[in-house]
């Protein structure tokens, strides 16, 4: 895809449900102000202090005490609603759900956003393990979205290593949203949540990305590994999503293996959980994993989805609010040994899916089994639809380029003054 190729016109739907969610999310964040500082403290303390049951090699004696004032503050963040004194009780699915819900999770791109070239950044997502990295009190800890400790190490991040003659504020801590790339043992930073105790939850992506570039360079965290800096950090390059930027992210050479493209709305705050203001898109050229594979790494003949069973028999997605896909009768639920909260795997039959305004009007589902216990969430609506489109009518790179070209042409149209 050359940067200035003219593509076939991409026909937009009048207004999609995903576009409606984007507009609603922007409206909500302008009306809502949470205790972002408390939320950042809670997350930093839980990442640093909680011992993961799946990480027996981490000696609890070496972990610092929880940061003060995290459990005694009178008002908790609505988003986390988490008391650090209860942290030790988090196990299994509860721990996975809580840690995963602290990340900003992209929706899958099932339509092209409006004002793509003006209001969005694009970056090539590194393949690897998504995690939080927290530096505080002379140590650095990374945790995966399932809550398990990935690494416990010294780093050049603020407060990330114990050095003689070097001290900082007791409450200084930093939180980075990263992807760990195994091949070159590098943490690729895709976002900044907190820096030296200053919360960035309610800052725009435009501001967070500016700080990420400028602040990380100052620390030496991007330098090669050393005694006090075990792993290298690197900021993922981001571009304005114009023709040149899309071309660079999509085809440009990078030191890591790509796993799709991420699109960030410039005005988006760091919203925990699924958000339509960050989108992921994939095709075979920029990702090895476009269509989901089974446990053997093979693409099944039918699309598989995972849904959650509710008390009333409805099976729903992980969205908030959840999207109802279908309803199971009581006899089937009893015969299958299912219970409310069960994550259930289905195949989509030949009847396919039909959605109108973000609601499933028809879904030909075939029961397979209860999902793996290691799984914490059902699939989201956008993932189900992206996977369905990828099999039948994928959204292509040429479509993205075509939308940008149309926007550029509209910007160049002269204004016509109406005479009396």
UniProtKB/TrEMBL annotation:
Composition bias (Basic and acidic residues) maps to 1-25
Q: Which GO terms describe its cellular component?
A: cytoplasm; nucleus
Protein location: Cytoplasm; Nucleus
Which BP terms from GO are recorded?
snRNA import into nucleus
Highest taxon of source: Eukaryota
The record's region (Disordered) falls at 1-81
Q: Gene3D superfamilies of this UniProt entry?
A: DNA ligase/mRNA capping enzyme
Instruction: Tell me the ranges covered by the Snurportin-1 m3G cap-binding domain, including all copies.
Output: 102-279
Keyword field: Cytoplasm, Nucleus, RNA-binding, Transport
| Compositional bias segments (type: Low complexity) | 45-55
- GO function term, MF aspect, one: RNA binding
Say which family it is in.
Belongs to the snurportin family.
Briefly state the protein's biological role: Functions as an U snRNP-specific nuclear import adapter. Involved in the trimethylguanosine (m3G)-cap-dependent nuclear import of U snRNPs. Binds specifically to the terminal m3G-cap U snRNAs.
UniProt-recorded name of the protein: Snurportin-1
Question: Organism classification, top ranks?
Answer: Eukaryota, Viridiplantae, Streptophyta, Embryophyta, Tracheophyta
